[in-house]
Amino acid sequence: MRTASKIAQSPVSEIVLLLRQKAERLSCMRLRSLTLACSLTALTLTSVAHAAAHTRPQSASASPAKAPKAPEPDDMIIAVVNGIPLTKRDVDNRGKLFALSTGLPVNQELMDRLRPQIIRQLIDERLRTQEILTRHINIPPEQIAAAITGIERRNGMPENALRDRLAQDGVSLTTLIDQIRVQIGWVQVLRQELGSHGRVSTREIAQREEALKRQDGRTEFNLSEIFVKVEDPRHAEDELAFTNTVIQELRKGAPFPIVAAQFSQSQTALDGGSMGWVQEDELDPSVIAMIQQMPVGAGAISNPIKVPGGFVIITVNGKRIIGHQPGHVITIRQAFLPFETPLNPEHVTPQQQQALQKAMKITQTVNTCDAMAAINKENGEKRPTDPGELQLERMNEQMRNLLDTLPLNKVSRPLVSTDGIDLIMVCSKKDKNFADRSPSEIADQLMNERVEQTARQLDSDLHRKAMIDMRIKLKGV
Fold this sequence. Notes:
By secondary structure, the protein is of the alpha+beta class. Helix content is 42%, strand content 16%.
């Protein structure tokens, strides 16, 4: 039985999660052995204290006044992990990446609350990075670029928007690339670790299908999670405080997939925390008790849930009866005509006028999905041509009404935004029972469960064998 963790087994090419994404921090390709160590001393006003001692007796409760501590240097070493340093700069950059990618203000209070867990997470990543290098696993730049694009797409961001925002706010792009590289490389490590167990047999699939049939009519949930690992259950105060901090920011509007990609310590982080559809008997009892009280969607975020190994934060994306979930599926093609500058309705530029004229012509002359795909390619494919199967019931009301009434192979009216014009064509429509699971979906679920168990065991082994020299006091490390 798993707690609230499912393994995201999405293909590596699709681990499009972070530039986000946020989704792998294997900057340790550039690990080098630094030898500098920094120590800070608090300055005391000894001369003042000395003078006071000669003018009046000093009470037992009195203490010498202290000057403010000098700021910590960026290259101050916080920990050394198997000979590889972790510096204050590394920790600060990760904190800024989290704040900026979620739209939160970068302030000292938030950084102080995040700092202990960021340090723990970066130590884990150092250990994972070293294991990736030991196994001679290389991550091509194309996979990292694809991950960045995927993060932007899943969060409704234009292409390069995340990169531009990081540059604008002075956060090194390397911080995000490192995070993504570690996540992708770790997936390959787990595949190697599984070896012959990395395949699901037809017998196992059949057994799960039979189990699902026996559960026909029961409730299952579509969940997303953020898992916070606790190293020492006797001292979980820091991890609980961090979990509460994350919950506060999620409830203020921080995007769940981005936060999960950066801070969740379950393999589901690779898929923005998505666990997919799960039944109650696959979950920890404490998780079941929580989700039964929660509303579906609307950004509801659970309180911290204590599970074996740590804390989990849950959001409920959907709820259905096993075996019964009728719905409508469509496929579309879209063409996006970008503006060179943001649209100002009071001062429309000639280029924007030309784009609108071109869009109107397309609505009158184009009548095939292949033609729409070609148009989008000609205009730089700033938006995905084919976003895959879409369920009408899960779209916002305005888009659902537009696509539900749009005839096949007919271009929609121009949808104008500040950065361009979108045109959509519906290519197919069909009814579908979303409760049905294909053999491949069942195989993915079984593999996810197997990978999650392997990941936790390997993480534990790496920590047990590691030489970790902490230069600051941190509970549980």
